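Ticket #4471: structure export looks truncated?
Reporter: QA, pipeline team
Priority: medium

Steps to reproduce: submit the single chain below to the structure queue and open the exported record.
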Amino acid sequence: MSPARETRTRKTSKTTEAPKTAKTPRVSKSVRKSGKGASADRPGAAHRRDLLHAMLRIRRFEERCVELYSAAKIRGFVHLYIGEEAVAVGVNEVLTPDDAVVSTYREHGHALARGIPAEAVMAEMYGRTTGCSGGRGGSMHLFDADRRFYGGNAIVAGGIPLAAGLALADRMRGQSRVTCCFFGDGAFAEGEFHETANLAALWNLPLLLVCENNRYAMGTALERHEAQTDLALRAASYGMVSWAVDGMDAEAVESAARRAAEGIRAGAGPHFLELRTYRFRAHSMYDPDRYRDKAEIERWKARDPIERLKDRMRERGELDDKELAGAERRIGDEVDHAVDAAERAPEESAESLLRHVTSAPAEVS
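Actual output as written to the record:
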């Protein structure tokens, strides 16, 4: 799994290097104020610590969701992100508040990495009015327009054409923004992906297509539903810069995503990243997970992105166990507070069930 391997076939069949950035991307005042998206200016131990803490926040939040689901505190379908944290954290690190994110039904990690508070996400899991979607979306439909997080989507590949629409709007308005769309290897097999990839390349859209290849489309192994398992190679056939990345390495993901985002902002059109990752849990909480060999799961757990970053930092003398324990306590307190707030938050009344569903009656003169 080489993070450097890349393919590009725009108007030529030859493999070429990724386009060099022609200009410095425009950065909004809000980005400069918050510092988000500027991590390239602060490399080193402090930045790796931030990456580690962001992944830990997702992991601890998800682990609590397991407990709450088992206790019937949260209901419906729940798709956990445990094992894939490096993807959400690494990609979101290079996006600015002006950029847009479109997600999937496995979007808790994306939402938290985007900056949606754990309290708002947990309340949505509980179906409470303080949730980021007002309690109407639940686990699969997290949404936050203020943060330009345009939702999870319960339909496989359903978000991909929506992302193309957002990117087209930005291009038509002349705005230097990136639309990032997350989806899985199962969505890659859907017509929505191929139609969108073709139009994105044809129209030179500022679209970052991020395929979280966790090797299983629900319960079907990649090699059983794709004749060509090199998804980056196939994406390149549409004329976009594409390459495969070790999705279990947060720093490798961030580096690849930054390179792609810079190319998009420079006008090089859509980019495709195949992030090779793995979910440690079953497809959903309903899934008995009988289609995978347990030894395979353990091999991938040995590449846990959180533990890999910890080990790298320890080798460099950058990880203080006392500071790490403090971070774990702070994150634990954050999740505890989110659960407590969700349990105390009100449910929507039956009288308001048609709100946002039907329009007000038209007045006829």
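Status: closed, not a bug. The export was complete when the record was re-opened. Leaving a note from the reviewer for reference: Residues 300 and 332 are 25 Å apart (CA to CA).
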